[in-house]
Amino acid sequence: xxxxxxxxxxxxxxxxxxxxxxxxxxxxxxxxxxxxxxxxxxxxxxxxxxxxxxxxxxxxxxxxxxxxxxxxxxxxxxxxxxxxxxxxxxxxxxxxxxxxxxxxxxxxxxxxxxxxxxxxxxxxxxxxxxxxxxxxxxxxxxxxxxxxxxxxxxxxxxxxxxxxxxxxxxxxxxxxxxxxxxxxxxxxxxxxxxxxxxxxxxxxxxxxxxxxxxxxxxxx
Length: 220
Fold this sequence. Notes:
Blueprint: H1 27-48, H2 50-53, H3 59-71, H4 78-85, H5 95-108, H6 117-124, H7 128-141, H8 149-158, H9 171-187, H10 199-212
Helix pairs in contact: 1-7, 3-5, 4-5, 5-10, 6-9, 7-8, 7-10, 8-9
């Protein structure tokens, strides 16, 4: 993203110093900066979406989604989500934990997903600002809002909490990353078959991001 003068929090992008050449960068300092970026991103989500923080768990949607995840662990994409979430052996018994970790697994990348290096690289090009901007915009648009890759890009580009705007060359790689996550979010029930936000996705996608960034939307 290019710079703007808005007085808003700056989240790291691929322009972070040393991102492209870790061999010339202090790895411990980079880790500290990234952990701070995680904390800042969770705070932005929490401050931007108070109505989501206050939303009750949509239990009638959560239970069947959790059952589908548990029942499909040998199939795409659930087996990849289990690997990326870092599950070993049995998945979490609690439905909320299970679903949140499944929806956020390919953002957290706590383990090798098995998707392939090209796909993992495409997902990992997406930075805090991309994910936060897209999910904040989608949640604000509300249940039924479109969530195709081009929509997620537009939400991220217009998000007032995120400093900067995309350069023309940014669009293709960002949309490629979103193209990989959209069918996953559809599979876990965050989006419907028309790629529109569901009540479960409205409640859960911000929480999935917070979990991926080692935080919680519900704990300020």
